[in-house]
Design a protein that fits this description.
single chain, Rossmann fold, OB fold (Dihydrolipoamide Acetyltransferase, E2P), 2 domains, five-stranded antiparallel beta sheet, about 35% strand, globular
Length: about 350
């Protein structure tokens, strides 16, 4: 395995009365699309600014391409940053915006034109070089900011909530475009976002942060299907969480008592005891009017709420034991789901192996 392009070693950042980043250690690979994901105030932007050199860590070190950057100023680091606000110059053309950074560092004039052209081609804006930013859409202005960062040929591109100012449809389009761009140019991207869908759709690996610390680092698939804590399960996607108590073992399963669901045997590959949480994703749950077959975890209840999203419907079922369970139904036909409505009594069921046991 090749050496990491960015190595974060024991980084802590303290501000008066708060620890913004708490002893973070992570290696980021060359040519990797890496996401720092978490709620507002979790420390992800502070960590990105430490990598960029805009913040000085209280403790720890940042290595980029094997070199300690502890005392290296931002303009001397082999990174470039795309900000949430884009920060393009309104009085300059697109080409002049992209060329600005090259001129500041004294790049020979003969090099600037070809490099600007190449950068604009990367982001598919080579035909708009003479336009001003106010003549561009939000997505095009974002691409100008990307081209301006890429033209300096950084080893690492840092992106701070780069899509948050875009509308939902354009944001989804830019997610695919950023992923394509990263694969095309083959440099490391590190993105900060609070949007789980954004991170899941683009990143090779995601670090979930909470209260300044990293709680889990994994691929999108592992984070979603195998979260290591209640916090990660709850933050990544929609999930049903049930409080339970471990009562023993049964072969390769753990027996858990859950109020409203009874005694359940949950497949689990390690020991567990005491209070635990059980998690099941809404799309794993089946809805029917008749009682499910044996071997499934099942309960009945009344449909309390129903939200229609076009391709899916989210239903919320309340059981007699005061559980509120979310179910995600794929709208595969033009008919309503099994002709059910709010107030109807239905059965819910899911496989024991689709249930996660979380000790934290």
């Amino acid at each position: 395995m090749s050496d990491p392009i960015v190595s974060i070693k024991g980084i802590t950042k303290r501000f008066p009365g708060v620890i913004a980043v708490d002893d973070v250690n992570v290696d980021i690979k060359e040519n990797e699309f890496f996401a720092l994901l978490g709620p507002s105030g979790c420390g992800k932007t502070t960590l990105l600014r430490i990598i960029a050199g805009f913040e000085t860590p209280t403790e720890g070190a940042i290595l980029i391409d094997g070199e300690d950057m502890s005392v290296t100023p931002p303009n001397r680091r082999p990174v470039n940053m795309v900000f949430q606000s884009y920060a393009v110059f309104p009085h300059m053309t697109v080409s002049d915006n992209v060329a600005y950074g090259l001129k500041v560092v004294g790049t020979p004039a003969a090099e600037i034109g070809p490099r600007v052209k190449e950068a604009l081609e990367m982001v598919q804006l080579d035909h708009l070089g003479e336009r001003k930013p106010d003549q561009l859409s939000g997505g095009q202005r974002q691409r100008v900011a990307l081209a301006r960062a890429l033209v300096k040929q950084p080893k690492v591109l840092l992106l701070d909530e780069p899509l948050s100012a875009l509308d939902a449809k354009l944001r989804e389009s830019m997610q695919l475009e950023l992923a394509r761009l990263q694969q095309t140019i083959g440099i490391t991207f590190i993105i900060v976002t609070h949007d789980q869908d954004e991170a899941l759709s683009m990143a090779d690996r995601i670090a979930v942060m909470d209260k300044g610390a990293i709680t889990q680092i994994a691929t999108p698939e592992v984070l979603y299907e195998q979260p290591n804590s209640r916090f990660v399960a709850d933050f990544i996607g929609k999930v049903n969480l049930f409080d339970g108590t471990v009562t023993g073992a049964q072969g390769k399963a753990v027996k858990v008592d859950v109020a409203g669901l009874g005694s359940l045997a949950i497949p689990h590959d390690s020991e567990a005891s005491g209070k635990v949480s059980l998690a099941v994703r809404p799309e794993k749950i089946k809805l029917s009017k008749t009682k499910p077959k044996a071997g499934l975890i099942a309960t009945s209840g009344k449909i309390a709420d129903w939200a229609y999203y076009g391709n899916t419907s989210h239903m919320y079922i309340e059981t007699p034991d005061d559980l509120r369970i979310a179910v995600n139904i794929q709208n595969e036909s033009r008919d309503t789901v099994d002709h059910v409505d709010i107030g109807d009594t239905v059965w819910l069921s899911w496989r024991p192996e689709d249930t996660l046991l979380l000790a934290e």
